[in-house]
Amino acid sequence: MNRLARREMMGAVMFGLTGLCTLVTISSLFFVLGYLVWHGIGSINLDFFTQLPKPPGEVGGGMANAIAGSAEIIFLATLIGLPVGLLAGVYLSEYGGQKFSFVVRYATDLLNGVPSIVVGIFAYALVVVSLGHFSILAGAVALSVIFIPIAVTTTEQFLRDVPDSFREAALALGAPKWKAIATTVVPAAFSALATGMLLAVARIAGETAPLLFTSFSNQFWNLSPNQPAASLPVMIFTYAISPYRDWHRQAWAAGLVLLALVLFINVSARLLLPRRVFR
Amino acid sequence: MTAATKSQSSAVKRDTIEPAQTPRKLSVSHLNFFYGAHQTLFDISLDIEANRITALIGPSGCGKSTFLRVLNRMNETVKGSRAEGSVLLDQENIFDLNVTLLRRRVGMVFQKANPFPKSIFNNVAYGLRINGLCSRAELPDAVENSLRRAALWDEVKDQLRKSAHALSGGQQQRLCIARALAVNPEVLLLDEPSSALDPIATSKIEELLFELKKSCTIIIVTHNMQQAARISDRTGFFLLGHLVEINDTAAMFRNPTRKETEDYITGRFG
């Protein structure tokens, strides 16, 4: 075999390998999605969204309380995490000195890497132990700890992408620094920031481990932040390891609903992003 | 009247005006400027006369832009920068003034047009709003007035709600001038405002500056010596952080007193 043929063959092999791995990557998503639809779609009906869970042994029922519980936990976690993450990101991008910013950024990355079950233990010690019982609030605190580093990192990144010429223009018109940030820098990055925050919401929506011993679970309705509540990820976990066939079906359905929700948030975040392009 | 005849007539006028007759707006004395340990301006002393156009020329890196940015203290946004000496604005040292108040009095237009990603209206209204300079009801008139002063009104009056980024480069730069004028600055600093524009857009901006000097004092940094000769009353020549020479523009270009100035304006370097 001559050299040219060998080179061409090598090229074809590399092309094939990279293509194959790309295929594996995207097909994982479609495989998961397809598998969930296959098992879960049959159990999705109006009852699933409107009924409370039935006791073991009884067929039917739904996860209305878990859907509401998840929504409330995610909402509260965002309420805590978004302002903290946003303002810390603004600080890093606009005010922080080099050394201090480096330390904070590094700490943020470490926090991002903390296993979510450890975050759960932290929230347990902080909220559950001091209140004496499980609660939605405890779950929200746990999820906000996961939310914050993502929000900080994306905020800093997107604000750094805002050209300095906007800051200079505002300062040259007599704007104090905080006003320049609030009226030009942040609005210029607004859709990018919204995207970042939505991705963070999508990320915490699927977290299970931090909720296991914080918001715990509940067979009944609860919207009080001071009481435990069911949530979709914890329901999936509980139902999937149960010995009941009907619960398994419900777990598949819950998985499908959760994934659809996360995909929906992700896709809308992507649609928001390219609207405004910096010059 | 075309721009050419205008500049000729003003050149004639220029010869008849004694520089000492106009009041001093800015008075810079013994100004040194440093970025960290690196000194970029050396012992600059000069006076800027009110309602005149002063052009600052010199090769790249000579410190003319740095000097301009000292005048509204924009250089302070760079960490580790430091100024020595004094700059008097109407007898008050600018380093003693509140920096945001100073910048309201000394406006700036940048080399690259930098309109905010907002509508045309909101760009011009920005300075008025953040400084609380006029009521909501007065805002439309104030915006129109500024756009008229920047000779942009007729081109944009039907599209005030459109994004400023939809305008052409020359229009964007005039919008930036309108934005700066809205807060009624006493001094307007322009840092190579037409270096990225074509000749037609450039001549529009130059005509505009002629009009504007009636109401404010203008300092313009330019790379373009023809531009300095066309529009300015006084010209200062910077080289390596030193002010080599400053004089009436006509005298400066006709017979410079310093060898370096002559070499530069006759194109022997830079």
What would your notes on this structure say?
The complex is a heterodimer of chains A (279) and B (270). Chain A is mostly helical. Chain A folds into 2 domains: 3-43; 48-275, Orthogonal Bundle (MetI-like fold), CATH 1.10.3720.10. Chain A has helices at 3-40, 46-50, 64-95, 98-113, 116-131, 136-160, 164-172, 177-188, 190-205, 209-212, 232-240, 245-272. In chain A, α5 crosses α6 and α9 (190-205) runs antiparallel to α12 (245-272). With 270 residues, chain B is α/β, with parallel strands linked by helices. Chain B has a single domain (3-116, 186-265), classed as P-loop containing nucleotide triphosphate hydrolases (Rossmann fold, 3-Layer(aba) Sandwich). Helices cover 38% and strands 25% of the residues of chain B. Chain B contains 11 helices and 10 strands. Chain B has helices at 3-16, 64-71, 99-105, 120-130, 139-149, 153-156, 169-182, 199-212, 225-231, 249-254, 259-265, and strands at residues 24-35, 38-49, 53-57, 81-89, 92-93, 106-109, 187-191, 217-221, 234-239, 242-248. In chain B, 46% of the residues are buried. Mean pLDDT of chain B is 88; it is low at 1-20. The interface between A and B is medium-sized, with 22 and 26 residues.
